[in-house]
Write a structure and sequence with these properties.
single chain; 4-stranded mixed beta sheet
């Protein structure tokens, strides 16, 4: 019974943007993905929400803008608290956005 509950538990994943080239870009400094089945599903949701992978091409000194999964959380509140710890200025870009699988479906339909 516990294994079945654990298998159905959806986690919260956070993706943090690197200040590559000395600035941040939309959609936010952190993409918090809720209700993901696993890390691969969370990555798909984050990519559909504005994250991308560039493999070393964003900035020669700073590196890629987006890294892999930074953290896994049990609650959205925990993920938000960590995102707020990394507020290093540039308030023009939101500190975080929260997305889920429903957001992907809305994006695809539009």
């Amino acid at each position: 019974m516990q294994e079945a509950m654990k298998a159905n538990k959806k986690m919260i994943y956070s993706f943090r943007q690197n200040n590559s080239g000395g600035y941040y870009i939309e959609p936010a400094k952190h993409i918090i993905v809720k209700d993901a089945r696993d890390s691969e599903h969370a990555t798909e949701i984050a990519l559909a929400s504005g994250m991308y992978r560039n493999s070393g091409e964003d900035c020669s000194c700073c590196g890629d803008r987006w890294n892999g999964i930074d953290s896994e959380f049990n609650t959205v509140e925990e993920a938000i608290a960590e995102a707020k710890e990394f507020d290093f200025g540039s308030n023009e870009i939101p500190q975080y956005i929260i997305v889920d699988d429903l957001d992907i479906e809305d994006t695809v339909l539009e």
